[in-house]
C-alpha cells in the first residue's frame, strides 16, 4: 500500500502528521504544516475524490491556519487552555446538526458529491473543532477523534487509502492531544 502512494499523498500525510503532533504539543509551528497538508488534501478532494464539502473545509483550514498562527503567537498554551461545560458542548452539537442540513442539501442537489450528508457533517464538526483548537478549548480533541473516525471510513470508501491511513494516525494523535492538553491544564490549576 505505501509503495503505491503518490508524492502528493506523502506530502499530505507527512505534513498532516507534523501538524497534529505539534498541535498536541502546543507548538505554534503546527499551523504551517496544517496549511501545507490542507492545501494538498483540497487539491485531491476537488480533482479526484469528489469530496467537495471536505475540499471547501480544507480551504477554510488554510484560513484557520493563518488565524491559529497569529492567535497562538500571543500566549503560551498551558496558561490558556480552557474547558467548557456539557451544556456548551450539547449546544455545539445541536448547531452542527442544524448547519449540516443546508450544506448536505447543497452538495447533494448541485454536485455529484459522494456521501453528501456524512461529508457535510464532518465538515461542519471539523470547522467547530478547528475553532475550539484555535481558542484552546480542551475538548477540541474529542471532536477531532469523532470526525477522524468518520473520515477514515469516507476516504477508505472513496479509494484513498493514504488519506484513510492518515486519519487513523490523526485519531491516535488526537487522543494524545487530549491527554497532553489535559495534563498541561492540570499543571496550571
Fraction of residues in H or I helices: over 70%
> Globular, elongated, flat, extended or rod-shaped: what is the shape?
globular
Number of domains: 1
The ordered H/E elements are HHHHHHH
Record field, number of beta strands: 0
Radius of gyration: 16 Å
Classify the beta-strand content into a percent band: under 5%
Oligomer: single chain
- Largest sheet descriptor: none
Look at the structure and give the mean pLDDT: 88
Structural class: mainly alpha
Count of helical stretches = 7
Q: Which residue ranges are poorly predicted, with pLDDT under 50 across at least 5 consecutive positions?
A: none
Question: Separation of termini?
Answer: 46 Å
Would you mind describing this structure in some detail?
The chain is an all-alpha fold and 189 residues long. It has one domain. The chain has 7 helices and no strands. α1 runs parallel beside α7 (161-188) and α6 (140-157) runs antiparallel to α7. The longest helix has 28 residues, at 161-188. The radius of gyration is 16 Å and the shape is globular. 41% of the residues are buried.
